[in-house]
Structure formats: C-alpha cells, structure tokens
Amino acid sequence: MPTLHLHNTLTGRKDVFTPIDPERVTMYVCGPTVYNYVHIGNARPVVAFDVLFRLLQRLYPNVVYARNITDIDDKIITAARDNGEPIEALTGRFAEAFADDMAALGALPPSIVPHATDHVGDMVALISTLIDKGHAYAAEGHVLFAVQTMPDYGALSRRSLDDMLAGARVEVAPYKRYAGDFVLWKPSNEDQPGWDSPWGRGRPGWHIECTAMIARHLGPLIDIHGGGADLIFPHHENEIAQGSCAHGTDYVRYWLHNGYINIDGEKMSKSLGNFRLVRDLLGHFPGEVLRFALLSAHYRSPLNFSEELLNQARATLDGLYYALLGRGDAVSAEADYQLPDDHPVLAALCDDLNTPEAISALHRLASELNKADAADKPRRKAELLAAANLMGLLQQDAESWFHQGKAGSLDADAIEALIAERTAAKSARDFARADAIRAELEAADVILEDTREGTRWTRK
Ligand SMILES: Nc1ncnc2c1ncn2[C@@H]1O[C@H](COP(=O)(O)OP(=O)(O)OP(=O)(O)O)[C@@H](O)[C@H]1O
Ligand SMILES: [Zn+2]
Questions:
Q1: 210 is in an annotated binding site
Q2: Nearest to residue 55, comparing CAs of 320, 345, 395?
Q3: Quick one: which residues bind ATP (predicted)?
Q4: CA angle, corner 228, sides to 262 and 113, nearest 5?
C-alpha cells in the first residue's frame, strides 16, 4: 500500500499517516453555520477534504467522515429575526442549499452529517464532565472553560496565553475568572432559543458543539480533523482543550488546514463583502469547473480567485474531456481496471494531497490516450477515468460535457472568438486544444470548414 503523508498543523511538518484503527479511519471537518448561502472560499475545505475522503477510501476498507451543520448560533438568531421566520425554517433551507451546492461541486456526502441542535444533551453532559474534572466553572448563567488549568493550551496555534490576550478579541466579562477563558454555555433570554440545563435555560458555545458531536459519532480520539486556517485559533485550540481535558486523550492525531481563497490578495469573506456565492457561479459555470479551479492549487497554498481562473479551468477540462470523446467502447475495460498502487496520480495525492501534480499526471495520460492505437485506447481511457475519479473529476459522459448549456446558445461573437482561439492554438501546435474547440462548436451545432482564406463557419 502507498504511504500517505499529511501536513499536520500540530507538528508543523509532513507526517506519515498511521491510523489508530486501520479498520475504522475517522475524520471530521467543521461544517457551515447555516444562515446564508456559501461562497467559493467556504467550498475550498469541502472540496479539499472530499479528495482526502476519496483517497482514504482507496487506502482503507472503512472510513467514517463526519461534517457537521451548525444550526444554533447568534448570527442565525439575528438572521431569522430579520426575516421574520422561525429558526428551523431558516436553518433547514440553508442546510439544504449547502448540500445541493456541494453536490454540484462533486463532493460526496459525508458518512454522517450531525446537526448541533440534535446534540445539546451530549454538550450538557460534556460540560458537566469538564466542571467535575476542575477544567470549567459556572458563573452568572454561563459556563467557562478555565484555560489556565490546561498546561498545553496554545500548542496548536503556538501561542502563549500572553500572546492570545494581546492579539485576540477576547471579551473581558465580569463573570470570567481569567480574560482568556472561553464560553461553553451561555444564558438565553425569553426571545432567544434555549435548552434547560443545570446552569439554567441557555444555549451552547460554538466550540463545544464540534467536540460533543465528535465524541458521539467518532470517539474520544480521532485520526483527522480539518477546516480552514482561520479556525486554528480559537476554534480548534478550544476544541483540543475541551476534548483532551474531558476524555484524557490527545483528541485528534492529525490536524489539517486549508489556505484561503483570496480576491485581489485579500481573504474572501462575508464581512469584507468581497465574496462570490457558489450558487451564483453555478449559473455561469458547470460545477466541475469550480471544482477543478479549487484543485488547481495545493490546498495549503493561497489561491487567487478570478474569472480568468475559471475560464482556464474550463479550457483545461475541455482538453481532458476531448481525450475521452467517442470511446464509449471502454466501458468493460473500465469495470475491470484497478489503479495500481504505484500510479503517479495516487503517488501525488499521497504526498499531502498534491493536486497540481496529480492534474499534471492526468494531462500526460490524456496526451498518451490521444496518440494511442485504437486497440490500446479502452485500457488507457479506463486508466484516465480511474485516476481522475480519485479527485472526483472527469466522471461525466464526454459528449454531454460538450453539450451542456451550449446547444444553439453561442452568438456570432462567441463563435468568432472560439475560432480565433482555435487558430491560435493550431499555430502554437496545441492540437488537443484546437480539436476540443472544434468539438465544442460542433456540440453547439456550428460546422467549421478550414480554407486557404481562413476558417468559415455555418450553423447546422
Ligand atoms: N476565503 C476562504 N478561503 C478558504 N476557506 C475559507 C474561506 N473563508 C472561510 N473558509 C472556511 O470555510 C468554512 C466555513 O466557515 P464559516 O462558516 O465560519 O465561514 P465564515 O468564517 O463565516 O466566512 P467568512 O470568513 O466569509 O465570514 C471554514 O472551514 C472556514 O475556514
Ligand atoms: Zn468545529
């Protein structure tokens, strides 16, 4: 079996991945707070960890992947009030929209999608354990985690308590014994949703939600925990404090964090208003184009988002799908094909999910496929499909790829532009691209004729 290396935020280096129990590999990724539609930055952890989920399933017989839905939060309460609708109606709608958007990006459904509001009993029990063990205290309807009771607090983000107090927006509240203590439980007034607890009617803090759902569904110690780099502090630091102090374990073996999707060098975020919703982008680009764009950079590197990035992704996919056109004869070869353990695409992904390298390997496979003898094509097509499937790419029928959203929809300017691009591709000897453009035009019922005076076109 190939060796999987993963960059672990806890150790600061690429470590060899060794599961606690190879018969049941466990992974958790923090999911969305469901009060609006997600932007393409929020989609990055979903797509990156979907590739890891696919890879782990290739390597191990049983992988349990949980990604939660945060359906209780102050932003949710505010949004529901602003809309004048019940909280459950709002969260139900946006949880469903999230599932649809992520399916459009080709992300597999996780094994478990726990909702925070279904686990409040588990959270109350966990908080009680932390109080019993002397790591938490109740004060004025709140329960706080006492960070000074944990010697290793700050190990993940490599911050001392002094750094945290200086650098972070910690709330100095009268009920806190120490300014860095964080909330496990807070009181709800009559207008706010709440649950009965030993500390009065209230609701959980955000960090305890993930720790309780992990313990319930995956166990007291899990293999992999992922999320965006903005979650390292305080969210994941606080999860470690809760989980390790309650269970007496290390809580998580491998911490993985994705880099940011940026716009003009700045993190895409709701607060800055520089975001593009997945839902809107899907009106202009197939989901696979968005997925490919997200995978075109290594998951830990920053990736600048632009229209150009998406156009590039579409053109590259055109070239790869072109290699798969008209070769439906490979169906039986495909069913029999097993990706070998030393396959270059598998090797690239096992190197901390090196998707740019894996995509280069797909290009090499496609160009060999374009040049191969007819007899050899079915096996090569099966290989390209199996390798791409590890990244959730190229799984559509190639003919339909070129037909989608195109038929009759190209105006004369768009046709002329594609013809100019094809002429340029031919003079650059990029024949695969040139042929892909011809196929794209054919799919839109445009016939090309190359003459000495240039390329003429007619509609079928
Ligand atoms: N620009 C980005 N690039 C990559 N990942 C991101 C980006 N913005 C948010 N994420 C990730 O998306 C996931 C969902 O996060 P969350 O719902 O907290 O988004 P958010 O922080 O509300 O978004 P925003 O930063 O836009 O306010 C988290 O794993 C977070 O790290
Ligand atoms: Zn979380």
A1: yes
A2: 345
A3: 270
A4: 125
Which residue's alpha carbon is nearest to atom 26 within ligand 1? 269
Q: At what angle do helices 377-389 and 355-371 cross, to 10 degrees?
A: 170
> Could you tell me the distance, in angstroms and rounded to a whole number, from the CA of residue 39 to the centre of ligand 1?
8
Those residues with Cβ within 8 angstroms of residue 109's Cβ, 6 or more apart along the chain or in another chain = 99, 103
The answer, yes or no, to whether any atom of ligand 1 lies below 6 A from the CB of 226, is: no
Tokens matching residue 52: 């890891």
383-422 per-position pLDDT tens digit: 999 999 999 999 999 988 887 765 456 777 788 889 999 9
Q: What is the atom index within ligand 1 of the atom nearest the CA of 43?
A: 12
pLDDT above 60 for 327: no
Q: Ligand 1 within 6 A of 26 CB? A: no
Query: Is the bond preceding 302 in cis, omega lying within 30 degrees of 0?
Result: no
Ligand nearest the Cα atom of residue 299: 1
Distance 168 CA to ligand 2 centre (A): 18
Interface predicted TM-score (ipTM): 0.97
Rounded to 5°, the CA angle 181-183-187 comes to: 140
Which ligand number lies closest to the CA of residue 205?
2
Ligand 1 neighbourhood includes 41 CB (under 6 angstroms): yes
- Spans of all domains in the chain: 18-258, 263-401, 406-459
CATH assignment, 18-258 = 3.40.50.620
Instruction: Quickly name the fold that domain 263-401 has.
Output: Isoleucyl-tRNA Synthetase; Domain 1 (1.10.730)
Interatomic CA distance for residues 39 and 271, integer angstroms? 12
Separation in Å, CA 56 to CA 1, 20, 62, 64:
12, 14, 9, 10
| Ligand 1 atom closest to residue 259's alpha carbon, by position in its atom list | 4
Q: Does any ligand 1 atom lie closer than 6 A to the CB of residue 271? A: yes
